[in-house]
Predict the 3D structure of the following.
Amino acid sequence: MVSAANKPTGTLKKSKLLPSWLLKLIGITSLATAVISFAVYWFKKYPPRRKISANDDGSEATGSSSSSSSSSSSHNAAENTADKWSNKLLNGLKSTVRKNRKRMTISLKNTVLWNPSPDVDTPIYAFREHSIQLLTRLSYLYDIYVLVHVNSKEEQSNIEALLSNASVFSDLLDHRKVIYCSEEEGKIHIIRHIEPSIHIEGGWEMDDGEEIVKKLKPFVHKIVWLMTKRRRDSFRPENIKQDDRSILGANVELSDSLINTSIAREVTQ
């Protein structure tokens, strides 16, 4: 007699249907929706009593029209009160979320902006691939400050025009937190004053940001240093020079692209 062998049942591999950053937002949104819905229900069911003013004479309203008008006014007043409380609760939750976000500073050049021109006096700026989408997602998790090293007022005007056409800068990021500076020391001073948890550095046309990373390393919890692939290869164990060893540390991450960093993986997984 031949018996049919049962096929082994495989285990279904779980996969994330949604990225972790989106799940965090959904959780916050669900909490806000639940609180607001309860507030609306409560104030509609139990509207606050109207205080007696000096103009009230204590007499009852007469006639069906007066009664109907009074009832309608009370109902509208209750709805308005509920809406006001809903808005207060929602604004309070938004404020709490904003306050709880960690600060992040980003040196814009060579991280988000790219300049293919070798001439410092005639730059041609463009956004790096996927940088705007990534910055948009990061803005939901971090309180972002953008620093731009500029060489002239004309260059600043050109960069301002470029940023104004990007939705993340016009809609999500606070324009007051886009800071322009012309000296490295000034940028370091600003970053230390902001006290970010994370700083992303890419240098500028004349420097790759090495000195900035060295000076910020003792004060910033995590530094992401973006550089060219050639410079990145110089930090490999077999290639690293003795002078470069002091730059490395547990809080310094090296990469040749923002999209390949651990910060990007937080919002893309």
User: Anything to note?
Assistant: The longest strand covers residues 142-149.
